[in-house]
Fold:
Amino acid sequence: MIRTRHLPAHLGLAAAVAVACSPQVDPGYSGEPLATIRGAVTAEASATAADVAVLWFSNESGLCEGPSFNCSAGIGGPEGIGAEECVDANCGASPGECTPEAQDSYAACVAACGWVWSYSPAFELCVDSAAGERVSVSGEFPAAFTLDLYQPPPESALLVDADGLRVAYGWFIVAASDAETIALDLNEAPPSSIIGGTGGHVLIYAADPVPADSSWGRFLGGAYEPGFHILEVIPAETTCKPLPWGNGTYCSTTSTRYAPSPDDLDTEIGVILTAFDKIPWPGL
Structure:
């Protein structure tokens, strides 16, 4: 028998996403771009007219702030071996902190009693909507493209964490060129106007310096200076271990993680023209 205890979890909101595809930059603007991003496009079928856009997420409800941390944990084992009494007598209450130091120590105590303890730390980004703006695109699209970013993201895209640090978080998408407004509800089928994107990289804009040990720094996997940055996406992973009794395994799953891209804004973004559900979009 496996019995589960769950640590308190603060869950992000299901997102209803709206993408307004209006030009971000006045074509006559002659200033220097804040960032230039280069990319290449591949297509599963014949190329079609499309635009590359950045989808900036936001939290219009104001019910939560920035990235939130949660930890799911479980304990269990076969009945009748006295393990539960052993755990209660020797291990005490489950740890309130989801750190390897606290969790691994408790897991070792539980294992000595003949049961198993597993935990899955996760960050979730608290968002409930998103707005995307087309950017200035040049190059031989769809074979290759260059995006010039002349302005910071809109104020509504600056998500504030518990420390007051402001960061905007965005996806690279491909939108049908005739789409004026895209409404996306994550509980419904995606619109046909989103015809591609990438799950391998995201774009952030740090309005404030982001220390590595802040909520944003932990969520984004590092420290960031103010400005635009390209991040690599590390997909969620599931790790399974054999049970200490009989046959079977027990598993832990991580959430999507991020890391600074080694080349930062010099990273070439690869987007693909394909169905929305074929792209491994980063988890929120």
Q: What stands out?
A: Residues 20-60+129-237+256-278 form one domain. Helices lie at 83-90, 100-112, 215-220. Residues 1-30 have pLDDT under 50 and may be disordered.
